[in-house]
Design a protein that fits this description.
Largest sheet: 8 strands, antiparallel
Radius of gyration: 20 Å
Structural class: alpha+beta
Strand content: 15-25%
Number of strands: 8
Helix content: 40-55%
Shape: globular
Oligomer: single chain
Distance between the termini: 30 Å
Order of helices and strands: HEEEEEEHHEEHHHHHHH
Number of helices: 10
Length: 257
């Protein structure tokens, strides 16, 4: 599948144009395989959910969100549900003032329609004035789009990696920071310091983020809220919903609408 994806994207990734957009359809469970691009890449799915793994962590990308990946970022995209993807390849040398880091952004209705329209411009077409204005507006809209905290960073420290992998496999695990510190043979204070240094967030914040990533994948598959809440270690759907709304500003029932 990775070879197939490389064949599809190569003409777009190497196009002399500063911005090109490709459309592709993927079945549920498919993956692109690990690869990278020479240009900045905006991944957006009008349907389905993408789980994007990279060497620095993972992102969950639901509909109405897109993932901006820096050029050269090695990644693998796994599809949840039938995914109809629009991928923009952007030469940041020709189009500056884009996000300095890989991140998930909110996709406004206008940006969505611009991406869909831009994917209809073939690589062999001569750009007319309308095309040029459309692509310029797409860039403007991308520059003003807000970001979302849907990134789950991963540590390079082997001791922390052991903890993080265990929590990703069992999000409901409620072991305290002191208990995890004892398991890897360090003081609790050292554990907190390592999390802040390696991941830019505390142990509790990282675990909550891991639970959110797990929950979004379960929600994308249509699982009931009570099941998602229990899988993530929350005593009730209301407790889970309160945490979810604190992060995203809306309840779980509205997130994928």
């Amino acid at each position: 599948m990775a070879h197939q994806d490389a064949l599809k994207s190569a003409p777009y990734d190497h196009s002399p144009r500063a911005l090109v957009v490709m459309e592709s359809a993927w079945p549920s469970g498919a993956s692109t395989g690990w690869h990278q691009h020479g240009k900045g890449q905006l991944l957006y799915a009008t349907s389905g959910v993408m789980l994007v793994h990279s060497d620095i962590g993972s992102w969950v990308v639901p509909p109405n969100r897109a993932l901006w990946l820096l050029a050269g970022m090695r990644h693998n995209v796994v599809m949840s549900g039938q995914v109809l993807m629009r991928t923009a390849y952007i030469d940041v040398q020709k189009i500056p003032q884009l996000p300095a880091n890989s991140c998930v952004i909110n996709v406004s209705p206008l940006l969505r329609e611009l991406l869909v329209a831009a994917s209809c411009i073939s690589l062999t077409q001569v750009l007319d004035e309308r095309h040029t204005r459309l692509l310029a507006l797409l860039v403007d809209e991308l520059r003003v789009s807000s970001t979302m905290a849907l990134h789950l960073p991963m540590p390079s420290d082997a001791r922390l990696a052991r903890i993080c992998q265990a929590l990703m496999a069992s999000p409901a695990d409620s072991s305290s920071a002191a208990e995890w510190a004892a398991q890897i043979g360090v003081a609790e204070r050292t554990l907190h310091r390592l999390f802040a240094k390696e991941l830019g967030m505390g142990f509790a914040q990282w675990r909550e983020q891991a639970r959110l990533v797990h929950a979004l994948q379960k929600m994308a598959k249509g699982q009931k809220l009570i099941s998602v809440a229990m899988d993530c270690g929350y005593a009730s759907p209301s407790a889970f919903s309160a945490m979810f709304k604190r992060h995203f500003g809306l309840p779980p029932s509205e997130f994928y609408q």
